[in-house]
Design a protein that fits this description.
The complex is a heterodimer.
Chain A: E1 5-9, H1 16-30, E2 33-39, H2 44-57, E3 65-69, H3 73-83, E4 88-92, E5 94-95, E6 102-103, H4 106-114, E7 118-122, E8 134-138, H5 143-159, E9 163-170, H6 177-180, H7 185-209, E10 218-223, H8 228-236, E11 241-245, H9 253-257, H10 262-267, E12 272-276
Helix pairs in contact in A: 1-2, 3-4
Chain B: H1 5-31, H2 36-47, H3 52-55, H4 57-64, H5 68-92, H6 95-99, H7 103-126, H8 139-151, H9 155-164, H10 171-201, H11 208-240, H12 245-264, H13 269-281, H14 288-312, H15 322-346, H16 351-360, H17 365-377, H18 383-410, H19 417-420, E1 426-428, H20 434-449, H21 453-466, E2 475-476, E3 479-482, E4 488-498, E5 508-517, H22 521-534, H23 538-545, H24 550-559
Parallel strand pairs in B: 1-4, 2-5, 3-5
Antiparallel strand pairs in B: 4-5
Classes of the chains: A alpha/beta, B mainly alpha.
């Protein structure tokens, strides 16, 4: 099974119902459990608000469990997720006013970086949730990277996706410096292209080893800053789900200040984002 | 005090003579695979008092000492040269790479600075006369300077060496680049403090504590706020203004302002421009083309003017002091090679790799020359020390590539087929089927490595069931990831061929069993792609399977690399 239990924090914001509907769609798709988490006082008013929401979403009483938590939202959601064995947390991204640009709010950001399980961040949840048709997976050659590819490939097959991209970024710091000492620009361009072919060859082997069958996939090797290049690739080919293996370390304020890797993606989400964790 | 018509003529003429010699000797050095900067220094020595000034003093004087105005104009141009050079050096530094280095890189960087710095500092502090201190009032500053001079690494020379040795895009290349960038950053910060301390000695400028506060706040301001500002402005400038004109102007304006500011507060101009360079280079919006245009323009026009001008002001033969030169050379080698080498070793690398890193980081090149020139201009060091520094910079740069190459050849990396294949693991088999030959290979590995045969055989066969491992041109690479720390390779030659369901339908004759650590998929990928690439030719495979015995096969394999 792809994911056993989906977790979603219920809020009464405008995004609340669309998120709930999206969670329901995925629950049915994965044939998984659903755990709804509400952070706040449990009283008759909130109870009835939640009832209304669930009714509007059209979820049957027996198909989910409801968890009440008090305290700091992000922490409470994370605790509930590990207590109830949730393996996929869903969260919404915020939209900057006037421009269509998505970013992570502080709660979603904490969830993303501290959640024990995989996280799906939806950029524009609809009342009529749509399928993901174009997948793009950022690959690294680690066991977690393998898991990310396998899981998203299964996901894409369930969705009956049209396109599936495997993207590998590679960085060679200081390539331009070699121009400094007697190398020509053509030479650096040539090295860049050779490396690109080499990386793409490896990516093809990697995919071959994973025995992906049932859906065509394309492989792309990108030269440049980690995170940034893949993010732009996803944006340009307008994929609708971007999958990344989770970064090995927790992100701190320092990482936000000096952006790298996944920070480039989080601060300018190109589309919905699935972060895979073991 | 304008330039007369004669002055202008002479000035332009001298510039063209400088560029002509710089290019000529630079290209000559390039032909011998040496850093181009060495040719430029030699050009200066030829054109300066050392050679031209001794043989044809008249020509030398009329070209470079025509009048005070011409000298001032030349100095202005060389100042511009060094400021631009430092802007480029800053742009090269990948800040995020420096800030999130791996453990090994951190240890290399730190020891690579601390060790040579201490070696230099204490030698100069306790034996100043050996190192040529002339002004006793500068004792401490001089010791600090020698420490800094020994801990510098020249990024461009390192980058070029790595590229020549084809290890630029490898783990070791990445480590060296990260450490060298860190080294550059810290080196320049220390040097700017040292430079301002000389200013203090001569009576003006701020006290040391306020100086450090000023430098600190400048760093924070530029690297955090200005950097963000640049990151936001660049896309706008690239979109609205002509490309690359707009971006180039923007970059140089920021660089010059920053240089002017730091010069004003009593820290040398190069510090400001260097830090601004870092802030600019960090932006993801700065295109690779823009970088390359700036590099070309600066390093082919302005940098040569600066490097040649060094030789114009000093007689290298008169000021050659064998003792000081030797002392500096010995300290330089000990400091860097031991410092970085130990750092790499403690960071978890093997002995050979550590030595490669040590010698790789030893090249000082252009940066040392800039440092020495400034110290000389400030009167901190005399001609003899200056000449010793230049010679040390040249020798460390020239020696770095050949020495690295020597150790590279000895390196046994886990990522190469030819070093992993041992003759005990080569068989000439008459097996008829895939299963038989895989079993045969697994048996050998199981016996040699004391592993469980069934486990090996089952994992390889399980992988074999997924998709065939038969590649084209008689090559098959059955493989699996197993619980092992090191990669294992065994090979079988089957002259009659075995049906392997290969892509080109040819039977497999050279069968390579590849067992790699299960937690490192990348090693498997690298080996697979390495083997598939090298043996993509029927002739090579035929040559290999024609070997009479394992020894011959191994030597043929080695010849391919």
């Amino acid at each position: 099974m792809l994911f056993k239990k989906i977790g979603l924090a219920i809020t009464f914001s405008p995004n609340g119902l669309p998120l709930l509907k999206s969670a329901l769609r995925l629950k049915n798709l994965f044939n998984s459990g659903l755990c709804l988490i509400h952070v706040g006082e449990k009283n008759t008013e909130t109870q009835s608000q939640i009832d209304q929401l669930i009714q509007k979403a059209g979820i049957s009483r027996s198909s989910f469990e409801l968890v009440w938590k008090k305290g700091e939202p992000a922490k409470s959601i994370i605790n509930a997720a590990s207590e109830y064995n949730v393996d996929l947390l869903i969260a919404g991204a915020l939209e900057k006013e006037n421009v269509i640009k998505y970013y992570l709010g502080s709660v979603a950001r904490t969830i993303m970086s501290e959640s024990p399980c995989s996280v799906l961040i939806l950029t524009n949840p609809h009342l009529e949730p749509e399928q993901f048709k174009k997948f793009c997976v950022s690959v690294d050659f680690t066991p977690l990277g393998e898991t990310a590819v396998k899981k998203s490939y299964e996901f894409a097959k369930l969705e009956n996706a049209n396109e599936f991209f495997l993207v590998k970024e590679f960085e060679v710091p200081g390539l331009a410096i070699t121009v400094y000492d007697s190398r020509s620009i053509d030479d650096t361009e040539k090295s860049k292209q050779e490396w690109q072919i080499e990386e793409e060859g490896k990516l093809k082997l990697f995919a071959r080893e994973l025995n992906l069958k049932g859906l065509d996939y394309s492989t792309v090797a990108l030269f440049g800053k980690q995170g940034w290049e893949a993010r732009n690739f996803v944006k340009e080919n307008s994929s609708d789900l971007f999958v990344v293996p989770s970064p090995p370390k927790k992100l701190k304020f320092f990482d936000k200040l000096f952006q790298h890797d996944i920070e480039f993606i989080l601060s300018r989400l190109p589309c919905s984002l699935l972060i895979i964790r073991n | 005090m304008g330039l007369s018509a004669t002055d202008i003529t002479i000035f332009l003429l001298s510039l063209s003579v400088i560029l002509f010699f710089a290019r000529g000797l630079g290209e000559l050095l390039r032909y011998f695979k040496q850093p181009i900067v060495i040719g430029e220094i030699i050009a200066g020595i030829i054109l300066g008092p050392t050679i031209l000034g001794t043989i044809f003093p008249g020509t030398f004087n009329s070209l470079f000492n025509q009048s005070e105005e011409v000298v001032t104009a030349l100095n202005g141009i060389t100042l511009l040269g060094v400021v631009m050079l430092l802007l480029v050096s800053g742009i090269e530094i990948d800040l995020s790479l420096v800030l999130r280095q791996s453990k090994a890189a951190v240890v290399i960087s730190l020891l690579g600075i601390l060790f040579p710095f201490s070696v230099g500092f204490f030698s100069a502090y306790f034996y100043p006369e050996f190192l040529g201190l002339t002004d006793p009032s500068l004792h401490l500053v001089f010791a600090l300077f020698v420490g800094t001079a020994l801990s510098i690494t020249a990024l461009p020379v390192v980058a070029r060496t790595l590229m020549d040795l084809q290890i630029f895009k490898s783990e070791i290349g990445y480590l060296i680049m990260a450490a060298a960038m860190f080294n550059d950053l810290v080196g320049w910060i220390i040097f700017s403090v040292v430079l301002s301390m000389i200013g203090q000695n001569s009576g003006h400028s701020l006290s040391l504590s306020s100086l450090i506060i000023v430098i600190g706040s400048f760093l924070v301001f530029v690297l955090i706020f200005v950097r963000k500002f640049i990151d936001y402005s660049l896309p706008f400038i690239q979109k609205r203004f002509t490309f690359p004109g707009g971006v180039l102007n923007f970059i140089f304006i920021l660089g010059f302002i920053s240089a002017a500011f730091t010069e004003y507060i009593g820290v040398h101009a190069i510090f400001g421009v260097f830090i601004m360079g870092i802030a600019i280079g960090d932006s993801v919006h700065l295109k690779k083309e823009t970088r390359e245009i700036i590099y070309q323009f600066v390093t082919n026009i302005f940098a040569p003017l600066f490097f040649v001008s060094i030789g114009l002001r000093i007689n290298f033969i008169e000021n050659f002091d064998p003792l000081i030169v030797t002392v500096f050379l010995v300290l330089a080698f000990i400091g860097k090679v031991v410092g970085c080498g130990l750092g790499a070793y403690w960071g978890g690398l093997n002995k050979n790799d550590s030595l490669i890193i040590g010698f790789g980081m030893n090249s000082r090149g252009a940066m040392e020359i800039v440092l020495g020139t400034l110290a000389y201009q400030y009167g901190l060091i005399n001609e003899k020390v200056f000449v010793a520094l230049i010679i040390m910079a040249l020798v460390t740069s020239i020696s770095s590539a050949p020495i690295m190459n020597y150790f590279l050849k000895k390196v046994k990396t886990e990522l190469s087929f030819h070093t992993l294949l041992k003759k005990e693991y080569v068989i000439f088999s008459s097996s008829q089927t895939k299963d038989e030959v895989i079993a045969e290979l697994c048996k050998i590995v199981a016996v040699q490595k004391k592993l469980d045969f069934n486990l090996l055989y089952n994992s390889v066969m399980k992988r074999e069931e997924l998709i065939t491992t038969g590649l084209e041109k008689h090559l098959a690479i059955p493989h699996a990831r197993i619980n092992t720390k090191e990669s294992i390779i065994a090979a079988a030659v089957v002259r009659n061929g075995i049906e392997w369901n290969s892509l080109d339908k040819l039977p497999a004759k050279f069968i390579v069993l590849l067992l790699t650590p299960e937690d490192k998929p990348e090693i498997q990928l690298n080996l697979l792609s390495d083997i598939a690439k090298k043996y993509n030719d029927v002739k090579i495979i035929e040559e290999i399977i024609a070997s009479k015995d394992a020894n011959e096969l191994i030597s043929k394999v080695k010849q391919l690399y």
